[in-house]
Every structure is written in C-alpha cells, then in structure tokens.
Design brief:
The complex is a heterodimer of chains A (421) and B (336). By secondary structure, chain A is of the alpha/beta class. Chain A contains twelve helices and 18 strands. Chain A has a five-stranded parallel β-sheet. In chain A, strands 3-2-1-4 form a four-stranded mixed β-sheet, with no helix packed on it. In chain A, strands 5-16-17-18 form a four-stranded antiparallel β-sheet, with helices on one face. In chain A, strand 2 and strand 3 form a beta hairpin. In chain A, helix 4 crosses helix 6 and helix 6 packs parallel to helix 7. Chain A is globular and about 65 Å long. The two termini of chain A are 29 Å apart. Chain B contains twelve helices and nine strands. Chain B starts with a helix and ends with a helix. The chains are: A alpha/beta (421), B alpha/beta (336).
Chain lengths: 421, 336
C-alpha cells in the first residue's frame, strides 16, 4: 500500500514523501497531490517532515532493572520524542558482552518495542576494562558498534589491542572519554562546586583521555567515536584530529547543549550528569562545534533513574537524566534560536548516526526505510512528569514549556505515535 | 632454482663418507653454532636439507645407528618444558652414536640461584661437544654461545628463533612439493609470540617461497609487513590459493581477552576447519609445529585428515637434528 505525505516542509524545501510498505519510494517537491494517484494521502499542512531521529546513546534497564525502564517503555518515550531508532548501551545486568545477549536485546526489541532498536556491544567483558569481549561474534550477531557505555576503557594497552581487533572487524569503537583516576567529582569542578561544597570533576579528565585515545587511533587506524564531549577544549582537540585526517567523530548530549552548571542550582539531582554540566562558555563552544561540523552527533543520553537512585543527597544520587520524550523538542530550540539550521540539525540527529553505524535509515531517500516524523515546530507543550512515556521521570526539563514536537512518528511505514492533546 | 646437481652431489658424497667413517667429511656449514636461520646461506640450507633427507631414509631402516659421533657428548639444556623437541634431539644424538645427557633444569643449580651463564660454563667445563639449549628469553642461546667452546644449537629461544623447526618444516614441504621456490605458504595464528613463525619466515623467504601471515592484528608483531611477507587478517583471503597452510599454537593465556576475546571466537574466525581449508589450493599441505590445541587453532578433522603432514613433521625433526649435529661436528673436528 502506498501513502503520500504532501504539503510538508522538508529539509530541502516544500514537498512531500511517498512510501510503499516499509520503504520510501519518492521524496521531494514533485510529490504533490497531483501525482500520487492510488496512494492514501496525508496532508501535512505545511508542517516539517524529517527523517526519524537515531539516538546513539540510550540506556534502558532491560535486562536487570526493568522497573526503571524496559525496551518497551523506552520505545514509547522514543516514539513520542521523534526517535525512530534507539541505540542501546551494553551496561545492563547482565552486560551485553556476548553474542547471546546481543541476540536477546534484538529479540526483545522485535517483540516488545515500537521503534527500531540496535545494541552496542561491550568492548570489554562485563564492561570491567580487563579483557576484550567477543567483538567479532557480537558484530556478526548484529551489534552496531562497541562501547563500555558509561565506563571508559582506561587501560591503554588493552584499548590499543581492542582497537586493533576492532579494525580487523571494521567495528566502531565508542568511548566514554573520562580518565577515571582524575574524575569522580559530583559536578563540574570550579567556583560553583566549591560554593556548594561538592567535589568537582575536571574537564581535563575528559580532554586527557580524548587526546590519549586519538594517539592510539593514529597508531592503530581504527574507527573511533567519542561518545560525548562536554568542554570547549575537547572541541578544539577534535577539530585538530579531524584536520589531521583521522577517521574520528564525536557526539554531545542534548543536555550539554542546553544546560550549564548553574542549572544544578540548589542540589537538583536531575542535573547530576556524567560528564557533568559545564560552564556557559563550554556550552556555547559545544553548540558552535555542532554548527561548524566538529561535533557529528547529538544524542539524548537517556538514562532512566528511579526515586531510589535520584531522590537522595546530591553526592549520593546516581548520574543521568531521561531524555527520549523531550529530545527532539529541546533540540528544536537550537533551530529556533538560530544556533543550527534545519539541515544541520537533521544531519546530526539522523544522518550522521546512521552513517557512523552503517544503518540504511537516517535520510529521506528513495529506497531506504520509511522512518520519519511529522514535526510541528511551534507547538508549545509543558513537560509534565506524569505524562512522560518513560518509566522513570528524572527529566531536567520537568515543568518547562518547550516549543515544537513530533506530532506523528512512523517506523518502517507504520505509524507508531500520534500526538493528541 | 638452486644448483640441484651440486646439492645432490653433496648428499651422495656424504653417503660415501658415511660408509668410510672416520675419514674426514667435507664441511657443510661455516658457523660453529646453529643459532638462527638468518645465519645460514641458501646453499647451507640446501645442503642441510639434502643431508637430512638421507637420514630420513636411513631412519626407516631397522638398524638406525651410525657411528660417526661415537665418543662425542651432547647435553640437552632445556630451561623451558618440551616433549617433542627434547626427545627428538636425544634420539638424533643417540642414533649418531653420541652420549646424550638431559639436564633436568628444575632440579638443577639454576633453582638454587645459579645464573644461566654459570650453569652453561660449568657444563662446558665437562667438555661436551654439543650443547642443545632452549630458554624462555629471546637471545639467551646466543649469549651462552659466546661463553662456551662447544657447538651450541638453539632449540628455541623466547619469541626469537627455532631454527631446527624451520628446517624440518622445509624438509617436510620439499618431500611433498619438491621445491620451496615459488610456493605460497600461509602461516596462521599467533605470529607475534612465535619463534616458529620467525624462523619459518626467514627460511622460506630466503628459499624463494611467498610467505603470508594470517592473524588478528593483535597477534601480529609490529613491522611484520617489512619481513618480506604479505599480511592478512582473515583466513579467506589469507589462504586463497596457498600450497601450504601452517598453523601456529595459541597459548591459553592469550585467549582470555588480552589478545583475542576467547577461544570460541578465535576458533570461529581463525580455527582451521575443513570449510576454511577449502580456500587454499586443492590438496594443500596442513602443518602444525605442535603441541596442538584441537578445537582452538585447528579442527580434529583437519589435523587428522588426508592433507595433514603433522606427524611427518615430527619424523623429519629427528632427521633434521641428526643432519645439524653431523654438520656441526665436522666443524668441531676441523678446528680440533
């Protein structure tokens, strides 16, 4: 069956999208009511029609902590937030460090999730940083990249070998860049942390590990992605590495593009993130980094935490914030305030993650999967914790009013979400 | 091709000498010791292999004994455990009439704190003619050779060289495929930690074979591409059209995630199965220096299959070591 989505604002201008079954068959200004005979016609009424978002950094609690988030509940939040593919991290219980676990995640997602789910494999067994995990077998089973998720592979000798091994199998190494022997603070190190009496985490622990890793990349020739950078200096380091011609990329979380250390305010644990929210200068450098191409990917950093891990004194609370429900809306703010144009925004939300991970979706092109979203860029909505689709409610944007959201989300030619409010 | 007439001539001449021992026998190699393949010339390798071939024939007779080294003393000094190499050297020496002594290092003065050099010098003072040494540290055998007056044979030093293994592999290949020149030999597995690989690369490239190494990058030594070999990281490309597939042993401690993720992943990508063997030339020889890890680097069906010459490698080991003892003895006697 054919469906035509006409009268839409595409990245390329006014036009439409024609799909048949699970695939896109035409896209552009020529898809109009006049030439889509036989198709079911959807009038987008001038709203945006974009490729579905591919979120490269999603933590769920499945398996092991389903009370915080299951693949199913995360996929509800994803669909509502315009995310059509979730890349899930291996830090579950048990860890996704063998082919059977990769297979488990994919089967559970197929049976329970509304959106596409692809797992990243652990680089080291148990994400413990001691021994290389079965990267080749996990890639064959369907893992799209390798990462220790929230943990850094700190041992340089081990990472060097893991990089060599990953290169043989053409696996992207995704590193959480944080030198553990130097980090460990509760928030960004500086005046504010000192005033609050909280231990600080230095930006240097990120910059150091990033620079070390880039040296190892140069030596081994593996494909490398810094999962998320948070400081201005890291942007400069990445720019230099790219200028050198290294096959490297990096991401940033939507939180670090939208918030800074001042938002922590009076010990608000929903703003306790790893890496921590940095200074306003850092935030601005990150936004500029996305705009000018140094930063390749924006992700939600979705990390569901429950009352038992968040409603605690700041120093004892867990790191992380949910982000799937609000991801696209907060990202649209960068478009509204003219920091990033629509084409670039769609690139960093969809096209680049797909390219790095070797996925066929991520761009509205004939022949690719029909994963797309209809976006009302000016629809104002209030983030009510009770209405978040995620099973956990630790959103740093709670009770804020956001401008713009996905009003329809389509995955493989099927509508998985429709905004009704 | 090396002058076959000359090489064969040397072997025939040798037979003549063997019959009329103890008449002086012509020298085969120049050096006093056998420390590394890289010390040997193409001509010396050819002559050693021809001599070994004649011993291989003789070893299949009921009476395998020769008297050419009667009265000589051979000491096997193995600092690292070994079954096949040590027994192979012992049998080789005995078949040539040597008095052979195996030093049990674990119960020797080394365990009382004596240095390797002192042990060697002490043994040397007992006037042996041959000292066969294996040691876990690269370069140790060469160090010993500088301090003793007898002939030293390297039976494996660390990750450096194992010259008699390369010679016996070459002899095994030649018996099946006539010449080494122009053959494609794929050496697969833990090249980084293998002295067998280094000696074989040195010998085979010297003799005109095309050598490939096939391994995950974590098991390839730095700079391997400059050894005159082609480097592959997958078996399909690495074995394509190979005349010989030489598997290497993967030690257990390297399979636990430090160099490769696990035994089963290694087997999946690099274990020589009948399926992977099909990438090689039809009827390609399958070799392994032993001891094998069945189900890790090689499948039993291949190890015991029709293309396997693994047991023949062991047989050729004795012949090659007899040839080496014989050749070195000629230099000792010449100098005396």
């Amino acid at each position: 069956m054919k469906r035509a989505f006409i009268n839409a604002q595409l990245v390329s201008g006014h036009g439409g999208l024609l799909i048949e079954g699970e695939r896109i068959i035409a896209v552009g200004k020529d898809v109009t009511s006049a030439n889509v005979a036989g198709a079911e016609v959807h009038d987008c009424k001038g709203k945006m029609l974009l490729a579905g978002v591919i979120d490269m950094r999603v933590f769920t609690g499945e398996p092991g902590s389903e009370y915080r988030e299951s693949l199913a509940s995360a996929s509800e939040a994803a669909a509502a937030g315009g995310v059509t593919t979730m890349i899930v991290m291996p830090n579950t219980n048990p860890v996704v460090d063998d082919a059977a676990m990769v297979d488990f995640i994919q089967r559970r997602a197929r049976d329970t999730a509304k959106v596409r789910v692809a797992p990243m494999a652990a680089i080291t067994k148990g994400c413990a940083g001691d021994a290389i995990a079965e990267l080749g077998l996990m890639k064959e089973a369907g893992a799209v990249a390798a990462t220790d998720g929230i943990k850094s592979v700190a041992n340089a000798a081990l990472l060097r070998r893991a990089m060599l091994y990953a290169r043989d199998h053409d696996i992207l190494i995704v590193q959480h860049v944080d030198e553990p022997s130097l980090s460990g603070g509760m928030m960004n190190a500086g005046e504010r942390a000192s005033l609050l009496g909280l231990s600080g985490s230095y930006g240097l622990s990120e910059v150091m590990l990033l620079e070390r890793d880039l040296r190892l990349v140069e030596m081994t020739g593996c494909r490398y992605h810094a999962a998320q950078i948070s400081c201005a200096e890291s942007v400069a380091v990445m720019a230099r590495a790219k200028a050198k011609g290294l096959d490297v990329s990096c991401g940033v979380s939507i939180n670090h593009l939208s918030l800074n250390e001042s938002d922590v305010g009076p010990y608000r644990t929903f703003f306790k993130l790893s890496p921590p929210l940095r200074s306003e200068e850092d935030r601005q450098a990150l936004v500029a980094g996305v705009a000018d191409g140094v930063i390749d990917v924006i992700h939600s950093g979705h990390d569901p935490q429950s009352d038992d891990t968040k409603r605690l004194p700041f120093a004892e609370a867990a790191f992380g914030a949910v982000g799937l429900d609000t991801f696209l809306s907060v990202a649209l703010n960068l478009y509204h305030n003219k920091s990033i144009d629509l084409a670039r925004l769609s690139q960093v939300l969809s096209e680049m993650p797909a390219k790095l991970l070797g996925l066929s979706q991520g761009k509205l092109v004939a022949g690719t999967p029909a994963d797309f979203i209809v976006v009302d860029p000016h629809l104002n909505w209030k983030v009510e914790p009770a209405k978040l689709h995620s099973r956990s409610k630790n959103s740093p944007f709670e009770r804020r009013t956001l401008e713009g959201r996905a009003i329809q989300t389509w995955v493989a030619g099927r509508k998985v979400y429709s905004y009704a409010d | 091709m090396l002058q076959p007439a000359l090489a064969l001539g040397a072997a025939f001449a040798y037979h003549a000498v063997l019959m009329s021992s103890p008449a002086p026998r012509p020298p085969i190699i120049k050096a006093q010791h056998l420390l590394a393949v890289s010390d040997l010339s193409v001509f010396e390798i050819t002559a050693l292999l021809d001599l070994a071939a004649s011993y291989a024939e003789a070893n299949r007779n009921a009476d395998k004994r020769h008297a050419i080294l009667a009265g000589a003393t051979q000491v096997n000094l193995f600092f690292e455990n070994s079954t096949r190499t040590q027994s192979s050297f012992e049998i080789a020496g005995k078949r040539l009439g040597c008095d052979v002594m195996n030093m049990a290092v674990s119960s020797s003065s080394i365990s009382k704190g004596e240095t390797v050099l002192d042990t060697a010098i002490t043994i040397n003072a007992m006037q042996p003619d041959f000292l066969v040494v294996r040691h876990q540290s690269s370069g140790t055998v060469e160090l010993l050779s500088q301090k003793v007056s007898c002939a030293v044979i390297n039976a494996g030093d660390g990750q450096h060289e194992h010259p008699t293994q390369a010679l016996l592999d070459a002899l095994t290949i030649k018996r099946h495929l006539k010449s080494l020149e122009g053959l494609t030999v794929a050496i697969c597995g833990d090249v980084a930690h293998s002295r067998v690989a280094r000696s074989n690369i040195a010998l085979l490239t010297k003799m005109g074979a095309h050598v490939r190494v096939v391994a995950p990058s974590t098991l390839l030594p730095t700079g391997i591409a400059n050894f005159g070999v082609d480097v592959f990281t997958n078996m399909k490309d690495g074995l394509a059209g190979a005349d010989v597939v030489m598997m290497l042993r993967l030690q257990a401690e390297r399979m636990a995630g430090s160099f490769v993720p696990s035994q089963r992943e290694y087997y999946h990508f690099y274990g020589l199965t009948e399926e992977k063997l099909k990438f090689a030339k039809k009827g390609a020889l399958v070799m392994h220096p032993g001891p094998m890890n069945r189900g890790v680097e090689i499948d039993s069906a291949v190890a015991d299959g029709a293309q396997s010459v693994i047991r023949e490698q062991v047989e050729m080991g004795v012949a090659v070591r007899m040839a080496v003892l014989d050749a070195l003895s000629r230099n000792i006697r010449t100098q005396a």
